[in-house]
Predict the 3D structure of the following.
Amino acid sequence: MHELSVALTLLDGVSEAALRDGIERVTAVHVRIGALSGIARDALLFSWDMASAESIAAGSELRIEDVPVAVFCERCKRERSPAPGTGLLCPVCGAASPTIVRGRELQIVAMEVPA
Amino acid sequence: MKLRVVEIQANIMRKNDALAAALRARFAKSGTLVVNLLSSPGSGKTTLLEETLRRLAGRYRIGALVGDQATENDALRLARSGAPVRQITTAAECRLDADMIGKALAEWNPGPLDALFIENVGNLICPAEYDLGEDLRAVLFSVTEGEDKPLKYPLAFNTSQLALITKIDIAQAVGFDRQAAERSLRAVHPSIEIVELSARNGQGMDTWLELLARRIESKSLAAV
């Protein structure tokens, strides 16, 4: 869906950081993508190849770390991982948790560049 | 080839969030209530908005921004209400973002507004990620869609303060299970406000309009 625009924004972030550090080539980019972000992994990989072509990151590898959903259960007072398709219910006590702790990530973590 | 790793740590949404914050500041100053309407295609966003604009006209100054991937049909439909309406054609993009809103506002002069409705692109995935500087995010969910829709798109329902169950006039005919719908809404957002309505027969419209009027009034008071 919006993978291409996410890939282009990623490239902006990478290019900006590279420019700042005087880096001319990027061989890999590490990102963290939350399960709630609605990003399809394959579509993002495909979009990355298109977005990064003819940039300093041309031919680079996009390494995606998937981040599963975690909520804070108010009743258990603990962080829990809801089962997929159950909404944000605590898998232990069944309480609904409004607080998403993880799973919304769309983050650039690092890039690999020639030493 | 020897490689080294350079840490970046940047949120991809940073730029959108900054633009949305600027929009929010601008609307706080003008006292304009901004409502972002989210839903799947065909949930009745345009019909609800048409009826809302019609009923609020005369009482408040209302404008609407309408996002679609193609055609200006929705804007043409809404313009019949007499309210200022502007279409944003997003082409490949499946959602509106704060930059699109900012650009549309720069080219559009609707005059001072008490409320601005933003009809997002019909899609429950991508629009959920993008803050548009709104005060109120309302997600529409029609009785024909399946009661478990919130479980399938948790973020859209979790980030909305209000769920509008639309087409309630045909609930019985399609066997809509009200308890099941509420259960799935509460599973992703325990405190979400729920309003059942039908833009077609007017059921529940007063509740929705009252809710809007209250928010419009308090927003304009806060601006003074």
